[in-house]
């Protein structure tokens, strides 16, 4: 039993809640740093590297701060998320030897405590006849997001000698210029982006639980003490970061105030608050699986990083493709957030979902400017976005074949505007947040609909065409009438009309103000109905098959099975030009449309499209297998969906994975949750409640998940063995639950047991006489 106030260095006992690593492996070190990253939506800290690999202080990590962008030199330079000074660096000595520089030591052990949001480390050093056991703990607070905590405990297990601890802050990135520094506070500014970064810290040391009177020494701090066998030394460091714009004054006072508040509750208080916050997040978001430990582990890992990526307190930042776990893609925001992440937040953490969508509202002017610059109306969102909403996609990149290639997605991958609109509507359907819709959401829907209305050009065939785009399949650029883009555009325009009707009816005065400000009138909105109805979709009424884009069927068909086992992407195998002339698809495109808007497919045509396009997809993107898994699950092909699920999980957790240096793949992690909840549970949304169509894989003997819908807290449990599903309304008003064709009414506090039908639900054959539905979520 530990004495009062002693640091709890033991990880959660249940190994199902941990990610452990024993020893060190230079080949997998960068991947481990990403997997073992901890973040809270404002601060992110990557895992540790081996001390013999070049870090003079032995605790190298990279700290990232949300929104801290700067732009380098050169005409092609784009804003990049820059690392903050490393506040975790330490130099430990015993008897004159630098402990953490030892290339060999015993019992090296890292543990990512997923349940409590902690990173722990343990190792033993033998030096000059003595043995010292070092254990470390770090966190970035889920309760006080500007605050980080680092603690160490050194126990002399054999021998005696002088122990030394030198605490420093690592050298800042060259993009940061030191403006001011005193013993308690450092202030930097960026070269070009007018950002300021403040950091303040407090350090304490105790020997056998007693402070030697060296509290909060100036940086760099050096503590020494003579210790003998059985004695222990504890080191604790609290740090606070703040970011601000230069014109808003120094962020230093805010950082100092947050540190003072953290000091007020002490490191034990910071730890308890942090653990309590994580307990709350798990209660709201943990999907429990029985019968498949690996699937359970993957879902917990996914939820851990998803929960750590969002900050509901800041509407000016979003979630990058790698979150705050790495710097791939320069920390830019893509469609990943709206399509792959937003469903998780809307259904488990609406406050975070709202803040993330408000980021798109605050960057709406940048989207308007891009549309205007390219000759269209409304708002065309940046394919890659940083802090202002301006397009920051780089003009060039080095391809997989090491050749410099032009990047066209910044101008041609325009489905991003419909993706943002989709997320806005999904959030509205799930939460019913009327204030958000009135003040922000409807304006986004109108301006994105306006863009598509101007973008779809009427031609001599009487159809409107959207030419020269890139769909999700980025192997083919400059294509015409990409089905995903066009159908999502049509849906966006229809939702724009719905949004206008909603605002005119519910908030007429606000509508008058908005319509005047945007210069939109009734005739413009009425005209959208004809525009949406005449957009070419590529749907063949005879077969039910969408052509991915005009002319796709005429391209070279390639049997991907002949290239099974390849270790490089197909565009490297075939070369860029042959890939462009082929039917090989980089990632889910028509299949992505099937996953997002299944009602856009005639009855039975969902299987027709999946079976046509899945064999043609090379899965050259980490986004692809998750979308295929979701689509397969909705088709009732649970075992196929489970295979896609496992392949998605392996992107970040696979033993042979070697591509994680830049951070974990946030979209893939969000896709795991979507496959489980939207796919295997079969969750959908109705006007009066939710719909369920559970079809679990055979190895999943039960699934239990919490959800939030329209202000209600729900618990859903699927039990295939008993052929039933339980739905419980924990808080909120009564609601309807639809299972199959049956509608059930569920009162607050009641648990509804619903018998399931035949689990082998047959896929209806395509009926060419059927028509598409209303293109709603």
Automatic annotation (TrEMBL):
Q: Which residues form the active site?
A: 474 (proton donor)
Organism domain of life: Bacteria
The chain positions of domain Glycoside hydrolase family 65 central catalytic read 300-674
Give residue ranges for domain Glycoside hydrolase family 65 C-terminal.
683-739
- Report domain Glycoside hydrolase family 65 N-terminal positions: 28-242
Ordered alphabetically, the record's keywords are: Glycosyltransferase, Hydrolase, Transferase
Binding of substrate occurs at 335-336, 586-587
Molecular function terms from GO:
carbohydrate binding; glycosyltransferase activity; hydrolase activity, hydrolyzing O-glycosyl compounds
Checking Pfam families in the record gives: Glyco_hydro_65C, Glyco_hydro_65m, Glyco_hydro_65N
**Record GO biological process:** carbohydrate metabolic process
Looking up InterPro entries in the UniProt record yields: 6-hairpin_glycosidase_sf (IPR008928), 6hp_glycosidase-like_sf (IPR012341), Gal_mutarotase_sf_dom (IPR011013), GH65_N (IPR037018), Glyco_hydro_65_C (IPR005194), Glyco_hydro_65_M (IPR005195), Glyco_hydro_65_N (IPR005196), Malt_Pase/Glycosyl_Hdrlase (IPR017045)
What protein family is recorded?
A: Belongs to the glycosyl hydrolase 65 family.
PANTHER family in UniProt: GLYCOSYL HYDROLASE-RELATED, PROTEIN-GLUCOSYLGALACTOSYLHYDROXYLYSINE GLUCOSIDASE
By what name is this protein known? Trehalose/maltose hydrolase-like predicted phosphorylase
Organism, by scientific name, is Brevundimonas variabilis
């Amino acid at each position: 039993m530990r004495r009062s106030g002693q640091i709890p260095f033991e990880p959660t006992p249940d190994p199902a809640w941990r990610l452990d690593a024993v020893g060190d492996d230079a080949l997998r070190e960068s991947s481990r740093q990403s997997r073992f990253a901890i973040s809270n939506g404002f601060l992110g800290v990557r895992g540790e590297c081996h001390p013999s690999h070049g870090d003079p202080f032995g605790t190298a990590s990279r700290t990232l701060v949300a929104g801290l962008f700067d732009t380098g030199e050169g005409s092609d330079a784009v804003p990049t998320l820059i690392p903050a000074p490393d506040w975790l660096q330490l130099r430990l000595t015993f008897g004159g030897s630098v402990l953490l520089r030892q290339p060999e030591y015993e019992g090296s052990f890292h543990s990512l405590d997923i349940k409590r949001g902690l990173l722990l480390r343990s190792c033993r050093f033998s030096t000059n006849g003595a043995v010292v056991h070092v254990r470390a703990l770090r966190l970035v607070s889920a309760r006080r997001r500007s605050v980080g905590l680092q603690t160490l405990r050194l126990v002399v297990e054999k021998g005696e000698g002088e122990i030394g601890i030198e605490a420093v802050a690592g050298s800042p990135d060259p993009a940061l210029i030191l403006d001011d520094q005193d013993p308690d506070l450092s202030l930097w500014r960026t070269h070009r982006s007018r950002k300021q970064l403040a950091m303040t810290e407090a350090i304490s040391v105790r020997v056998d639980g007693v402070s030697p009177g060296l509290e909060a020494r100036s940086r760099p701090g050096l503590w020494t003490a003579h210790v003998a066998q059985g004695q222990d030394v504890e080191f604790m460091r609290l740090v606070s970061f703040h970011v601000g714009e230069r014109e808003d004054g120094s962020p230093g006072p805010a950082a100092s105030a947050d540190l003072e508040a953290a000091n007020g509750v002490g490191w034990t208080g910071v730890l308890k608050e942090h653990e309590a916050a994580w307990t709350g997040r798990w209660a709201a978001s943990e999907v429990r699986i029985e019968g498949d430990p690996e699937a359970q582990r993957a879902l917990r890992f996914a939820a851990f990083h998803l929960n750590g990526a969002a900050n509901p307190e800041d509407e000016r930042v979003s979630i990058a493709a790698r979150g705050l776990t790495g710097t791939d893609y320069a920390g830019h925001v893509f469609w990943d957030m709206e399509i792959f992440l937003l469903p998780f937040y809307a259904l488990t953490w609406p406050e975070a979902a709202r803040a993330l969508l408000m980021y798109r509202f605050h960057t709406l002017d940048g989207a308007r400017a891009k549309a205007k610059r390219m000759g269209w109306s409304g708002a065309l969102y940046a394919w890659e976005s940083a802090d202002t909403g301006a397009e920051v996609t780089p003009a060039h990149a080095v391809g997989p074949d090491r050749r410099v290639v032009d990047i066209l997605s910044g101008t041609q991958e325009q489905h991003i505007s419909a993706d943002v609109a989709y997320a806005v509507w999904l959030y509205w359907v799930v939460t019913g947040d009327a204030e958000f819709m009135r003040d922000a959401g409807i304006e986004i829907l109108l301006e994105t609909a306006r863009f598509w209305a101007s973008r779809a050009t009427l031609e001599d065939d009487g159809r409107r065409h959207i030419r020269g785009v890139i769909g999700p399949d980025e192997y083919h650029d400059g294509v015409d009438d990409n089905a995903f883009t066009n159908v999502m555009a049509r849906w966006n325009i229809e939702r724009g009309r719905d949004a206008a009707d909603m605002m005119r009816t519910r908030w007429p005065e606000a509508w008058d103000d908005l319509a005047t400000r945007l210069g939109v009138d009734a005739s413009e909105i009425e005209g959208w109905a004809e525009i949406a109805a005449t957009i070419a979709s590529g749907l063949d009424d005879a077969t039910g098959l969408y052509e991915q884009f005009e002319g796709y069927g005429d391209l070279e068909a390639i049997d991907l099975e002949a290239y099974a086992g390849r270790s490089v992407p197909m565009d490297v195998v075939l070369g860029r030009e042959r890939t462009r002339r082929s039917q090989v698809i980089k990632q889910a495109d028509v299949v992505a449309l099937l996953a997002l808007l299944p009602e856009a497919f005639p009855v039975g045509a969902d299987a027709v499209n999946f079976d046509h396009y899945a064999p043609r997809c090379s899965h050259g993107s980490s986004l692809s297998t998750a979308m295929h898994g979701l689509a397969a699950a909705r088709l009732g092909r649970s075992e196929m969906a489970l295979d896609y699920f496992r392949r998605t999980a392996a992107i970040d957790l696979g033993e042979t994975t070697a591509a994680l240096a830049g951070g974990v793949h946030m979209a893939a992690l969000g896709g795991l949750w979507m496959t489980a909840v939207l796919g295997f549970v079969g969750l959908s949304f109705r006007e009066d409640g939710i719909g369920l169509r559970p079809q679990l894989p055979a190895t999943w003997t039960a699934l239990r998940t919490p959800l939030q819908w329209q202000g209600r807290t729900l618990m859903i449990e699927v039990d295939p063995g008993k052929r039933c599903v339980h739905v419980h309304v924990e808080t909120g008003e009564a609601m309807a639950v639809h299972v199959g064709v049956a509608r059930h009414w569920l009162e607050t506090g009641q648990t509804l047991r619903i018998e399931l039908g035949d689990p082998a639900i047959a896929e209806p054959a395509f009926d060419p006489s059927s028509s598409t539905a209303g293109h709603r979520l």
